[in-house]
Structure formats: C-alpha cells, structure tokens
Design brief:
The structure holds two protein chains of two kinds. By secondary structure, chain A is α/β, with parallel strands linked by helices. Helix content of chain A is 34%, strand content 27%. A six-stranded mixed β-sheet of chain A has the order 6-7-8-3-9-10, with helices on both faces. In chain A, strands 2-1-4-5 form a four-stranded antiparallel β-sheet, covered by helices on one side. In chain B, helix 5 packs across helix 6. The chains are: A alpha/beta, B mainly alpha. Chains A and B meet through helix 2 of A and helix 6 and helix 7 of B.
Chain lengths: 236, 294
C-alpha cells in the first residue's frame, strides 16, 4: 500500500436533502490501487456519500479533491472524463437498451469504445449482446453495470451495494473481480456495502458510517477482527 | 371502386402528414413525458416565417428551409426558456404551460399577420395523374410521401445507428444514470425538442396549403387528428405514430367521402374516445414490462 498523495481526498464534507443534513463532517481518502469499504446500517448515509462525490447531490460544505481537481465544481456529466465511474444502487442498467447499447454508452465519451475486454471479463454478457436490460438476471445486470463503468476506463470506481439481491456465489465473483482489477490496473474502489463480510474480505480499508458521521476507520483486517466494533456498528 | 381508390390515396396522403405530426408529439413525449399541445401553434409560427421569406424572395424553397430551421430554433428555445422550468411533479403543469404558449403564439401571429386566411403556395401541382382513367395521385402527394418517408428513415437511422441517438434514448429512459456516463442530458432534451418542432414544421408546410390556407389557428384541427394518431399508436411508439397517422388519414378520407365532410371531425373525436376507453396504452405500445420495476 502506498502512502503517497491520495487519489481521492474528502475533507469536512456535509451534504443532505433539503434542510435535512445526512452527511456530517465526513473526511476520508482513497489511494490509487486501494479498495475502501464504506459500511454502516441502513440510513447511515452511505449512498448519499457516493451521490455527493459524483455530483448527483450538491455538497453543502467541505472539499472533494480528486487528483488535484476540486470535484465540487465538476458537473455530473463531466465526472467520467476525470476518471470517475459511479455504479448507482439498484445497478442503473438502462433496461430499455440492449446489453451492447448499455456498454457502448459507457464509452461514448471517449469516441470508439472497446467492448471486447468487458465481454472477456463477463462471458455471460457476450452471449446476450442483443438482449434488453430487463431480460437479464440480477447477477447479469450487476455485471453489465460494472462492465459499463469499466468501459470508461475509470481510475476511481464508486460502487453502491453490488451484492444487493445477488446469490453469495455471484457476490464472491464480483468481489474477486474487484480485487483482480485493483491488482492488475491500479483501480481505486470506494465500495458501499451492507454485506460486511464480503466487503471486508476484499477491502484494504474499512470506514464505518453511523448517522452520517464516520464512527470508525481502520484496516479491513482490523475491523473484521474487532468484536466490539462489529457488534456495535455492523451487527454480526 | 374508383371512388374508393381515390379516397384511399387521398387518405394516405393526409395520413402521412398526420403521421409526421404525431411522430413529433411522440419524440417529445419520449424525451420529456410532455404532450406538447403547443406543437400546432409552433408549427404555424414557423410556416408564417417561411411564408414571409417566400414572399420577399419569390423562392418557395428558401421559405421551406427557413420554416424547418425555424422549427429547430423554436423547439430548442421553447425547451430551454420555458419547458425546462416547468415543475414535472404533475403532468398537468406542462399541459397548462403549453396551452399558454398556444395563446401567446396565436395572439402574436394575429398581431403581425392578421387573423384572416392567407393563401399558402405549394411546391408542386396538386392535379392528380390519371392512372387507368382514375385520378389517384398528384405530384404534391408524391412530395408528401417522399418527405415524410425521408423523415421517418432519417429519424430511425439517427436513433438506432448513431451515438447521438443512443445518447438521446438513454437520456430519456434514465437521466441520472446517463449523466453519470457522461451524457449531457439537458442538451439531449433540447435536441429532442428541436427535432420534434422541425418535424412539426414540415407537417405544417405540407398540410396548410391543402386546407384553407395560413391562419394562426390553421393547425388546430390537424393537431387533434395527429394527437389521436399518436394516442392510437401508443404515445411511446414512433412506428405506432406513423401507422396511427395513416389510419386516421384513411378514416377521415372515407368518412368525408361517404358520409360528408362535416362528419369527419366527429369521426376523429369518436376514434379518440374509443381508443382512450378501450386501449389507453395504444395499439403498439408493448405491455409495460414487469421487469422495469425490478
């Protein structure tokens, strides 16, 4: 693990919906080639954190710096150009478009998208190129959403609940894929998960959010081994 | 039989115009979930602009181009300046704003051009050729079929074969996801309105000379027919709009041919009511996919 300048640096971030603050004074950083798991109960602010980072939700105060750029002033539709891909909760596959169209969409901003790598990574998608999004299984949709994010060749992947509704075996495959991508390409991942065991199995660092604040932050192995923390925040 | 053939071709020619106009309604519905009730008035405004240019220059085609380009500009302007700021929490808001636009546009046109019918020129003769002793098609009918056909083909290619078309479809179906993927969703919406208004202008250019002439309300009845066509096809379906347009054109032609022209507007309204009661999703909209919610 490197200790150089972080790829993503968040400091004192506050955000919320209308007058109701959700995130309070959140600070964290992600290095290149690092998987950071964001854990916490329902309503802790995990999804809000990702939505604020990618600009879908404006921050009320604080700073978000990505590779030296102030992301708070970058429009949502420009994020992908800076190397940030956000796979939203519920997978975000455009169900009215085909698998191939979804993937092409992911790479449109860079001109000619290269889809072969994704098909190689996810063979089931290669067999269903012309199927519409709503014809896919949950696991295939998750593959498609992640594959589509990868077509853009991001440096930071914001991944919201990839295990939601998936069989444990499929979840394990996706976690293994994240580990592999990190090791091979230096991809940084901010992984929001309810499935704590899966997330900590692959993450380098874990952050526990509680009621919008960072309750604790430690290495993944430390978190997984700390019984008190697990009982208090993670419920197992 | 001769009469039937004549009415059929006449109906298809009118139906092609309704198809184009219905297609414009569908384009905006798919992009913005708004039925653009101002489309008739917007189309008339651009046809007036073309009329002014044709009068000043003596060139029908220059006026034609000005009207189409005017449609692009007016459509984009209406989206950027007005519709973007309409609260979409209730579908009625967009409808009311569109009806307000109708009043403004028709009022302004009346002030500039007066509220009487002006003669609108046609590019080609409307005298029908005789085929086997039956007058079936005029050069103008062929022009109508060719231009509407070209629009349908070009729009199909745009939406299915080009990156911009893919962006437009994605932006309509899933705006937030599309933005995360780098699609300028606002720009796609503006483009959709511009294209739709230009197609509406084309329909106005084609149909106004065949009716009473140019008048601020010249497209009101056409709008009802085209709206019926779009609803018949299912507002979400471009191919449905085209088929719906042809069906409405044929219906109007047969009813006015066999029962009298005064009955024709009623026939359209009856068809609209029947469709809304019996098949409100239209004939060509796929059954809403259960998977959509999943």
């Amino acid at each position: 693990m490197t200790t150089s300048e972080p790829l993503l640096d968040v400091a004192g971030l506050n955000a919320g919906y209308g007058a109701a603050p959700v995130l309070r004074d959140v600070s964290l950083s992600v290095q290149a080639g690092q998987i950071v798991a964001v854990l916490g109960a329902n309503g802790a602010g995990k999804t809000t954190l990702l939505r604020t980072l990618s600009g879908l939700l404006p921050a009320t105060s604080g700073s978000i710096t990505f590779d030296g750029i102030d992301l708070r002033h970058v429009k949502v539709e420009r994020m992908v150009r800076h190397g940030i891909a956000h796979v939203p909760e519920g997978r975000g596959v455009v169900t009215e478009l085909t698998v191939e169209e979804n993937l092409r969409l992911g790479g449109l901003w860079r001109g000619k998208p290269k889809l072969d790598d994704v098909y190689e990574l996810f063979p089931p998608l290669a067999q269903r190129k012309s199927h519409l999004g709503h014809q896919l299984s949950g696991g295939e949709r998750q593959m498609l959403a992640i594959g589509r994010a990868l077509v853009a060749q991001p440096r930071l992947l914001l991944l919201d609940e990839p295990s939601l509704g998936l069989a444990p075996k499929v979840t394990a495959q996706i976690m293994a894929l994240l580990r592999d991508l990190r090791d091979r390409t230096g991809l940084a991942v901010l992984l929001v998960e309810q499935n704590v065991r899966s997330a900590l199995s692959v993450a380098d660092v874990g952050i526990v959010l509680a009621l919008g604040r960072i309750a604790t932050k430690d290495t993944a192995s430390e978190l997984a081994g700390n019984d008190d923390l697990r009982h208090a925040y993670l419920g197992f | 039989m001769d009469r039937f053939l004549f009415l059929t071709f006449d109906g298809l020619s009118r139906g092609a115009v309704y198809a184009a106009f219905a297609l414009a309604l569908v384009l905006i519905w798919r992009a913005a979930r708004i039925v653009n009730f101002a489309q008739g008035a917007m189309a008339v405004a651009t046809v007036y602009a073309g009329y002014s240019v044709t009068n000043a220059t003596g060139s029908y085609w220059l006026g034609f181009v000005v009207a189409i380009v005017g449609g692009l500009v007016l459509g984009a302007a209406v989206e950027r300046v007005v519709m973007r700021f309409v609260d979409h929490s209730s579908p009625l808001n967009g409808v009311v704003v569109a009806l307000g636009l109708v009043l403004i546009i028709q009022g302004v046109l009346g002030m500039i051009y007066g509220n009487e019918f002006l003669p609108a020129p046609t590019a080609f003769s409307r005298d029908a050729f005789e085929v086997g002793g039956v007058a079936l098609l005029s050069r103008y009918d062929i022009f109508v079929f060719a231009s509407v056909g070209a629009v349908v083909v070009l729009l199909t290619l745009l939406f299915t074969r080009t990156p911009t078309g893919l962006r437009m479809r994605a932006a309509a179906f899933a705006p937030d996801v599309s933005r995360l993927l780098g699609v300028p969703v606002g720009g796609m919406l503006t483009l959709g309105w511009a294209l739709a208004a230009a197609v509406g202008s084309l329909a106005g250019l084609l149909v106004i000379p065949t009716e009473l002439g140019l008048h601020p309300t010249a497209m009101d009845v056409v709008f009802i027919s085209a709206f019926t066509a779009a609803v018949l096809g299912g507002l979400d379906s471009p191919i449905g709009a085209v088929i719906g347009g042809l069906v409405v054109g044929l219906l109007l032609s047969y009813v006015s041919g066999y029962l009298g022209a005064t009955v024709a507007p009623m026939a359209v309204l009856i068809l609209l009511v029947v469709v809304l009661l019996g098949r409100p999703d239209g004939l060509f909209t796929r059954a809403r996919t259960k998977a959509r919610a999943a």
